[in-house]
Design a protein that fits this description.
By secondary structure, the chain is of the alpha/beta class. It has 2 domains: 241 residues, Aspartate Aminotransferase, domain 2, CATH 3.40.640; 101 residues, Aspartate Aminotransferase, domain 1. It has 9 helices and 14 strands. The relative contact order is 0.16. The structure holds pyridoxal-5'-phosphate.
């Protein structure tokens, strides 16, 4: 791998090696243009082809249809925390949220800041966001139900999306988009910062269903209206060209090398099972997410003694394992097993963990 390590960063995160190699090959001369992809106009034919191909591939991967628009926006997933309520709230109706930790909490705060009537219909705050609530009562007249499909910090994930009885689902899929198969039918909108499972930082994917556009208030600032980006096909202003170019390479890799989302999900399940089975087989490390809510993408765990943490991190670094420190808000450790992280990386991590436990247990 030429000095590369096994990268367990939570985001920005590992990218598929063949994608990085293709970027390297094409960096000075994109497609015979004699210019780098970083140097060509977003209005040029080569870039338009990249964007169009990315959209077609994303639609195929997620099994979207003619009703769905795929958009490339800026401002990160955090911008969607405010664009969603601004665009999709309905007069006289509440907007419903499930609170499963930091990112949901931030999304709720933005909706409240905009003066929307927010109904937090379920929360796992009572047990430190270590699980996904089972009972999710959705008011039948809610404008939408917002969930965070995967909680990057806490290591929990919806294994089944709530039955919303016709209320459109909206999901922040920043840390599990393209990691598994799911039915898009109940979703009015989904969004994902690309920098975990879909590409580099700098672009946010949004999928919005046509009927949602009817709600978008006419008077919104142009740059904050989904309608602008649907009408201009993500090209109202200069889009993040390089990030979109990389996203296109990642989705091409997913389709042509991995074999689509079913195949990707199988690999992701094997990777996660390897680490969780090990965690369950011993009592040195302790997983922090409840078993029925565990994430396939972010595996969070603690050591028996905080005094060992520095030695653990140093040992990881010496073994070529990077990015395992937990989020600063919760501490402990987190192994992010995104699509681009190979099975061998997880095998190497488990071997290291066994050895460390043997020496320090
Ligand atoms: C689930 C989730 N939502 C939102 C965000 C925030 O994304 P951004 O930094 O693109 O605003 C993150 C970032 O880690 C995340 O994991």
């Amino acid at each position: 791998m030429g000095g590369r390590i096994f990268n367990f960063n939570a985001g920005p995160a590992a990218l598929p090696l063949p994608v990085l190699q293709e970027i390297q090959r094409e960096m000075l001369d994109y497609g015979g243009t004699g210019m780098s992809i970083l140097e060509i106009s977003h209005r040029s034919k080569p870039f338009e082809e990249i964007l169009d191909d990315a959209v077609v591939r994303i639609k195929r991967l997620l099994k979207l249809d003619a009703r769905h628009h795929v958009l490339f926006l800026q401002g990160g997933a955090s911008m969607q925390f405010l664009m969603v309520p601004m665009n999709l709230a309905l007069p006289g109706a509440a907007v419903a949220y499930v609170d499963t930790g930091t990112w949901s909490t931030k999304a709720i705060k933005e909706a409240r800041n905009l003066g929307k009537e927010v109904a937090v219909v379920a929360s796992s705050q009572d047990r430190d966001f270590s699980y996904i609530p089972k009972e999710i009562p959705v008011p039948s007249d809610a404008a939408y139900l917002h969930v965070t499909s995967n909680n990057t910090i806490r290591g929990t994930q919806f294994h089944r999306f709530p039955e919303s009885g016709g209320v459109p689902l909206v999901s922040d899929m920043s840390s599990d988009i393209f990691s598994r198969v799911f039915d898009v039918e109940p979703f009015g909108l989904l969004y994902a910062g690309a920098q975990k499972n879909a590409g580099p930082a700098g672009v946010t994917l949004v999928v919005i269903r046509e009927d949602m556009l009817e709600r978008v208030p006419k008077a919104l600032p142009t740059m904050l209206s989904y309608r602008t980006f649907v009408e201009k096909k993500s090209m109202f202003n200069t889009p993040p060209c390089f990030a979109i170019y990389v996203v296109r390479l990642v989705v091409k890799w997913l389709e042509e090398t991995v074999g689509g989302l079913e195949a990707m999900e199988r690999v992701n399940r094997r990777k996660a099972a390897l680490l969780y089975d090990y965690l369950d087989s011993q009592d040195f490390y302790r997983g922090t997410a409840q078993k029925d809510s565990r994430s396939l993408m972010n595996v969070t765990f603690l050591l028996p003694d905080a005094q060992l943490e520095q030695a653990f991190l140093e040992g990881c670094a010496a073994a070529g394992l990077g990015g395992l420190k937990g989020h600063r808000s919760v501490g402990g450790f987190r192994a992010s097993l995104y699509n681009a992280v190979p099975l061998e990386a997880v095998e190497a991590l488990v071997e290291f963990m066994k050895e460390f436990a043997r020496k320090n247990g």
